[in-house]
Amino acid sequence: MNCSGCHGVDAQGRVGPSLIQISDRRSQLHLIQQITSGQTPPMPKFQAQPQEMADLLSYLNKL
């Protein structure tokens, strides 16, 4: 819901980059830092609960 506006509903990218095979290009630590920091405009800062983050990382690993 939070990601698809920029990354597309199929994760192919729109305003934000494609997330397809992102786990091959970035470590899980880097992905967590990217998601929570908001240091790469226009990506906003997200403060996900631990289970939400685990679910998101699991989803990204499957892309």
Automatic annotation (TrEMBL):
Domain Cytochrome c stretches: 1-63
Regions annotated as coiled coil: none
This protein's UniProt keywords: Electron transport, Heme, Iron, Metal-binding, Transport
Protein name, UniProt field: Cytochrome c
InterPro entries per the UniProt record, alphabetical: Cyt_c-like_dom, Cyt_c-like_dom_sf, Cytochrome_c550/c551-like
PANTHER family listed in its UniProt record: CYTOCHROME C-553-LIKE
